[in-house]
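Title: Comparing notes on inverse folding

I've been comparing how different people in this forum approach sequence design from structure. To keep things fair, I'm posting one structure and asking everyone to reply with a full sequence. Here's the target:
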């Protein structure tokens, strides 16, 4: 992790506050994410993990604090989130593929319509990415013809084709059957090895330990602990973290 801590800060969260109906969902969150770093956010259901990702992607309004991307604040009224989301990609639990479009049509849509890029250039990139995730032979298939794990890998390829600077993954294996989880996690692990900056929300403890540079433990909308995977899983600093890990028998 030492080498990545020396990398420039790509995304910074300062005193981030988000509430729903007067209740704090995120309570003064502070977090810096360095270029090339993989940060895994853990915590019990309803603790604010997914809300944090949605705030980073501009899908939720915040009531306080700041989000800084490449030194520029993302909390002003004039922020062009359509442009920012091309740089901060996000993959959700539920693939959101267009059912009437083939795999390759789903992938080409954003780069072609939003970024106005050359179709042949996008096709070349999409082909390479599909080959990397083992789905090149399914490029002309429709979503209904794919398994859940295949759909999720296509969703990842679609996001990558926008050439994001950072990727956010929100429980991308939560809707999958157990036998399909591994194929999706392998793709994300491959991205980590290639240096992609990522923030990952997951309940897969073994995967978190394997892929993360840092673990961020959140509970009741607060950051309770931040540390390396070894520190977090073998020598947790807080009693709340120990209670959480005991559930998973770590």
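Reply #1:
Here's my take.
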């Amino acid at each position: 992790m030492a080498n990545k801590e020396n990398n420039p800060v790509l995304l910074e969260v300062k005193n981030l506050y988000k509430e729903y109906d007067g209740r704090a969902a995120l309570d003064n969150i502070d977090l810096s994410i360095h270029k090339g770093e993989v940060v895994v956010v853990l915590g019990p259901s309803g603790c604010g993990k997914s809300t944090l990702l949605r705030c980073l992607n501009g899908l939720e309004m915040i009531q306080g604090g700041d989000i800084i991307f490449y030194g520029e604040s993302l909390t002003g009224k004039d922020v062009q989130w359509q442009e920012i989301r091309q740089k901060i990609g996000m993959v959700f639990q539920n693939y959101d593929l267009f059912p009437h479009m083939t795999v390759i049509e789903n992938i080409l849509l954003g780069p072609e319509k939003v970024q106005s890029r050359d179709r042949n250039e996008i096709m070349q990139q999409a082909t390479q990415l599909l080959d990397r995730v083992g789905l090149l032979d399914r490029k002309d298939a429709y979503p209904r013809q794919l398994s859940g794990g295949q759909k999720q890998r296509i969703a990842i390829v679609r996001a990558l084709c926008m050439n994001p600077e950072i990727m956010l993954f929100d429980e991308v294996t939560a809707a999958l059957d157990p036998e399909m989880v591994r194929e999706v996690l392998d793709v994300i692990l491959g991205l980590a090895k290639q240096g992609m900056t990522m923030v990952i929300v997951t309940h897969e403890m073994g995967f978190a330990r394997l892929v993360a540079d840092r673990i961020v433990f959140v509970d009741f909308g607060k950051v309770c602990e931040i540390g390396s995977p070894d520190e977090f899983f073998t020598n947790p600093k807080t009693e709340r973290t120990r209670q959480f890990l005991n559930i998973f028998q770590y």
